[in-house]
Amino acid sequence: MLVMKELDMNLRNYLQSHKLTWKEVIKITQDIICALLRIHEENIIHKNLHSRNILFLKYKDQWQIGDLGFCGPSDKSLGNIYGTLPYLAPEVITEREHNFSSDIYSLGMLMWEISSRYPPFANYEHGDCNFINDIINDMRPEIIPGTPLEYKELMKQCWDADPMKRPNIFILKDKINEMMNKVQQTADDYTNINLMNDCSVNSINRSFNSKVHDVVDLCEQRNIIKEHIQAYKCIQVFQTIL
User: Fold this and answer.
1) Helix axis angle, 149-158 relative to 22-41, nearest 10°?
2) Protein kinase domain spans which residues (predicted)?
3) 0.85 surpassed by pTM
4) What is the CATH number of the domain that holds 14?
5) Which of 133, 112, 108 is nearest to 122 (CA)?
6) Burial bucket for residue 60 (CB in 10 Å: 0-12, 13-18, 19+)
7) Which range is least confidently modeled, 25-39, 183-197, 222-236?
8) Which of 45, 129, 133, 134 is most buried per CB count within 10 Å?
């Protein structure tokens, strides 16, 4: 049985006020993966992973996952999606169904956020039709320079457009543990991150709220890279239900 306790700070607020080394980035990611492992072992899909649901337990010096059990209103039809759009996997939007792999996609977005200190897609209007289509068409945040290769590759695997190509939580645990063991032994590749300045990070005030989204007539999912997204037909009507 998973039991939540009172926790001290969420990850979004922490990232706004702390500069990190790669060792710290990997340690936070390791904590989140271990917490998600415990959730998946209980046959639970979180469905709403984002940085405000990642909470620090001070007395354990450990990050935990909050909002357990908030899987979306039970009285909503399959035409509705519950979650925070920048972290939602493309198939959740197109197929209106969460699964273990969609949690892994959200984890990939969290990995990027931890390394950059920015919420994903902070400069986009999240209710905009084009933004939703960009997610479906495999738009991903730009990976920051200097990201260690192992971390970058694991992150890209997590947010792969094909859910079948994403690693499961057990593989992720092994990979992040290997990475943590390496960072304990070598410091050369794990120095301070080339972070954005504090002013630009702290100036982000966009609210990332979990909502029920009614999505109709979505564009077909395509696995193309961000740099080659040019023009495409928007055949989507998007409404947000507060």
Assistant:
1) 30
2) 1-180
3) no
4) 1.10.510.10
5) 112
6) exposed
7) 222-236
8) 133
Of 50, 74, 65, nearest in space to 3 by CA: 65
- How distant, in Å, are the alpha carbons of 104, 157, 217 from that of 163? 9, 10, 21
Residue 221 CA to residue 47 CA, distance in Å, equals 20
**CA angle at residue 27 from 63 to 154, to 5 degrees?**
110
N- to C-terminal Cα distance for the chain?
Answer: 31
In the predicted model, what is the mean pLDDT of residues 87-109? 92
Domain count, the chain: 1
Could you tell me if residue 17 is inside a domain?
yes
Q: With respect to residue 198, please indicate whether it lies within any of the assigned structural domains.
A: no
Structure tokens at 186: 């070598």
What tokens does 124 get? Answer: 């986009």
Does residue 154 form part of some domain?
yes
Enclosing domain of residue 120: 9-189+209-241
pLDDT in tens, 19-50: 899 999 999 999 999 999 999 998 889 999 99
197 domain residue, yes or no: no
